[in-house]
Amino acid sequence: GRGTDPATMLLRLGGDFGESQVNDQAITSGSLIVRLTGGRLDGGASVRMPGGLVQADLTGTPFAETPAFTLRNGRFENLDVGAFAGDSTLASDLTGTFAAEVAGTDPATARAGATLTLEPSSFNDAQLDGTVALTLADGVGQADATLALAGGTAMVDATYAFPDDDAEGHGGRHLCLPR
């Protein structure tokens, strides 16, 4: 690295690791690289497991007046959450993609969005695929999800309004789940 001024700082961090274990999940290899140049953050990470992987790239402007970050090229293949959690009752084989972006740190003014697309996968004995989308704008969070399961489709549409402080300092929380 070089410098302490965020506008001119140059910082590079990275590393690779070999065989490892997280609870019951064997890890074959992994890597992480993070670069900060002229106030811009770029990086990526990947973890490989026998028959599977998790990977994503990150960009951002952490020192901007409104900090912003983007997670892109997110992918997971043959992910077994039960093995990662050390819980043999949660057998899964999940494959899909993910992405996210956020600008700002105050829920009342921040803008954010995230998507997860689940390709044909399994969780215990259930076959499933679908999408989950989350957004945040003007203090209102929105979640939309559609999951195709054997025998039907599950859909969620929910809105959450972050509390506004009133004159007495009390806020209100509102969660709307349409019927």
**Count, helices:** 1
* Count of β-strands: 13
Instruction: Give the assembly state of these chains.
Output: single chain
Strand coverage percent: over 45%
Largest sheet properties: 11 strands, antiparallel
For the CA atoms, what is the radius of gyration?
A: 20 Å
Distance between the termini: 54 Å
Helix content: under 10%
Q: Detail the poorly predicted runs.
A: 166-173
Q: Could you report the average pLDDT, rounded to the nearest whole number?
A: 88
Strand order of the largest sheet: 1-4-5-6-7-8-9-10-11-12-13
- SSE order, as H and E? EEEEEEEHEEEEEE
The rough form would be described as: flat
| Global structural class | mainly beta
Describe this structure in words.
By secondary structure, the protein is mostly beta strands. It is built from one helix and 13 strands, in the order βββββββαββββββ. It has an eleven-stranded antiparallel sheet with strand order 1-4-5-6-7-8-9-10-11-12-13, with no helix packed on it. A hairpin with a 2-residue loop joins strand 4 (29-37) and strand 5. The longest helix is centred in the middle third of the chain and has 5 residues, at 81-85. Residues 166-173 have low confidence and may be disordered.
